[in-house]
Specification:
Elements (H helix, E strand, L loop, with lengths): L1 H13 L2 H17 L3 H11 L3 H15 L3 H11 L13 H13 L14
Length: about 120
């Protein structure tokens, strides 16, 4: 808050009064908009895909369609007209582990040498 006030003082001293009023109003708007930042983040999360939303979508496809995770991601990208390459940023760590497990079972990857307890 102190930074905003000091910026207002500097602006009012260095510019004409009409320009200073405009800049002061902009600073007040930016300061007030910080309070509603959580609302903005929620709106963005609802509108755009996040890693958690993407993982939930893929889990739903796997449960509903009975696909493996690799096929579910390809199916999701195909139905939503998304390039598979652009989805890599949305894959969370748990989803990545499930993908790795599917790839090993389908012989797309070599098995790791780490000991694994039977489940």
């Amino acid at each position: 808050m102190a930074n905003v006030l000091s910026m207002k003082n500097m602006i009012s001293q260095s510019t004409s009064s009409s320009s200073a009023n405009i800049l002061e109003n902009l600073l007040e708007i930016n300061w007030n908009s910080m309070e509603t930042n959580t609302e903005l983040e929620q709106a963005i999360e609802n509108k755009f895909l996040t890693p958690s939303n993407f993982a939930m979508e893929i889990e739903g496809i796997v449960a509903k369609e009975g696909m493996n995770y690799i096929d579910a991601i390809c199916y999701y990208c195909e139905t939503n007209n998304i390039e598979v390459d652009s989805v890599t940023k949305l894959i969370s760590k748990p989803l990545k582990e499930r993908l790795k497990y599917d790839a090993i079972n389908l012989n797309f990857m070599k098995k790791t040498s780490r000991a694994k307890l039977p489940l």
